[in-house]
Design goal:
The chain is of the alpha+beta class and 128 residues long. The protein has one domain. The protein has 3 helices and 4 strands, in the order E-E-H-E-E-H-H. The longest helix has 13 residues.
Length: 128
């Protein structure tokens, strides 16, 4: 059971995991997987469930009318989780618990992929 919306768990690939992020692109999932595995977490990546949308009932077609094409399929998204159920990404980033490949602390901008390198000497609250 989740403590709050920031601490959820889910079964990914048959393994109970603490969810890191949901509905993300393949590139973002790869980035998070590499970063978390570098920090000794066991990571599970699985496809997110498609959004639950009620299908509109088809209206009857008039004589000679052609049926409209089906709506496009939603893009494939992924869910990333770690097997350590106590993991919380907010605590990990702001608690300075994660490290990059070169040993620097993971900052919020690095985590959000706004910067390619972690600038740990500049506080997150002073960046504009």
């Amino acid at each position: 059971m989740a403590i709050n919306k920031n601490h959820t768990d889910e079964e990914i690939n048959g393994v109970k995991c603490a969810v890191v992020e949901k509905n993300i692109t393949a590139e973002r999932a790869t980035f998070l997987k590499e970063l978390l595995e570098l920090n000794d977490f066991t990571v599970q990546v699985g496809e997110s469930a498609p959004p639950k949308v009620a299908a509109a009932p088809p209206k009857p077609l008039a004589e000679g009318e052609v049926a409209p094409p089906p709506p496009p399929l939603p893009p494939v998204t992924f869910t990333v989780g770690v097997t350590n159920l106590a993991f919380n990404s907010i605590n990990a980033v702001f608690g300075r618990l994660l490290r990059t490949k070169d040993g620097k602390v993971v900052t919020l901008n690095y985590w959000q992929q706004k910067e390619d390198i972690s600038r740990e000497n500049i506080p997150y609250f002073s960046k504009q």
